[in-house]
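Human: Here is a favour to ask of a fellow structure person. Comparing notes only helps if you start from a blank page. I am asking you to supply a protein in sequence and C-alpha cell form. Write it directly below this note and I will take it from there.

Assistant:
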Amino acid sequence: MTSGRHAFAHYRPSHGTLNGVRAWIVWITGVLAYIVGVLHRTSFGVSGLDAADRFGANPSLLSSFVVLQVVVYASMQIPAGVLLDRVGPRVMIAAGAATMVAGQLALALTESLPLAIAARAVVGVGDALTFISVLRLVPAWFAPRRVPLVSQLTGICGQIGQVLSAVPFLAILHGPGWTAAFVSAAALGAVVFVLALTVIRDAPPGMERQTQKVTVRESGRQVVRVWRRPGTRLGFFSHMGTQFSITVFTLIWGVPYLSSAQGLSSGVVGAMLTTSVVAAIVSGIVVGILTGRYPNRRSWMVLSIMVSNALMWGIVLLLPGRAPVWLLFLLIVVISVGGPGSAIGFDYARTFNPSVALGTAQGMVNIGGFLASLLVMQAMGVILGALGGYTLDAFRVAWLTQYVVWAVAITGVLVSRRTARRDAGVVPRTMREVVYRHQSRK
C-alpha cells in the first residue's frame, strides 16, 4: 500500500551512511543482547516437560508460567517504550540483561512453584526492555535506506537464541540438570550486561540523541497520539497476525506437540527447531530487501504471511492421524516466516512516527503479537487440560484457536490500511493498472 511513507522523513538522522566499524560493533553487541534474551525467553519452552516434573504442574498450570511471562512482557511494552524515549537504548539493554539474569538464577535454584512463576515474570520484564531498545539503535547508527534490512537482520539473528535453547541448553538440562542449565543461561546474561555498558552507545560521536523529557500526564497524551496514527495501528495488527503462531510454538506448545502428540524423538524435535531458525534467517533477509525496495507493498506481504500460516496449519490439522515428518518440517518453515514478517510492523512504526516517540510506537506495535500469543497459549492450556493432556486429538482442537486471531488481525490490517491511505490522500491502483504499468516498463 501507499501509506505516506515519508510523512516523518524530516525526523530521520542526517548523518549520512554510517557503515563504519563502530556502527557494526555497536549493532552486534545489541544483537548479542537480543540473542541471549531470546534464549531466556524460550528456555522454559524447551524444558516444559522437565518443569512439569519438577514443579508438579499440569498442562493448564504449566501454561501459566509462560502466559504470565508474556502478560508481563506485553504489559511492559508501552512503559518500556516511554522509558526508551527518555533514557536511551544503552541503559535499557543493560537493565534488561540484569533483570533476566536475576529471574533465571531464581528459577535455577528454587523448587517452589510460586517462586518459579514469579521468576518467569521477572524474565518477562527484562525481555520487554531488550528488543525495542536494540531496534532503536538501528536508525541512529545506519542510514535510512539500510534501516529495513538491518532491522530484519536484528530480528532474525536474535533467533540464534532459540538454537541455543534447543541444542546446548537442552543438552545441559538433560545432562548436568535443571540448575546447571539455568545458571549457564544466567551467566551469558551477565556477560551481556557488561558488554552493553562498555560497548553500546546511543548514537555516533557528535550526534545528539533526541529524547523527550515529559511529565507522566504528557506521556499518556503521547501514547494516545501515537495510537491515533493509522500507521501505528497498521503495525500493531501486522505484528499480531504474523508473529503469534511461531511464538506460541517455540515458547511452550511446540515441543510437547511434536514429542508427545506427533511421537517424534528429541533429536528430530531439535532439528525442527533449528530448521525454524534457518527459515527465519533466510526469509528475513528476503523480507528485509523487499520491504526496503517495495515499501508500498508491505501490507500485501503481511497478508500473504497470515494466509499461508493459516492454510499450512489447516492442512496439518485436517489429517486424521499423525502428520508425516516432512509435512511437519514444512509447517515449521512456513510459520517461521511470521517472525521476520512481524518486523514489518516496526517499519510502519518508524515511518509514521517522529524519532522522539519511536520507542513508544515500537512498544505499542510489539504488544500486538504477544497479546495474541498469550491469549492463544492460555486458551490452549485450558483446552489441553480439559481434553486429557498432550494427545493428538486434544492438540488438534487447541491449535484451532489460532484462527480467531488471524480473523481479527486480517480485518485490522485491511481497515487500518484503508484509513492510512485516506489520510495520506492516496487512491489505490487497481490490479489492471498495476499489470499495465509493469508491462509498459518492458
User: Anything to note?
Assistant: The first helix runs from residue 21 to 46. The chain has 19 helices and no strands. Confidence is low (pLDDT under 50) at residues 1-19.
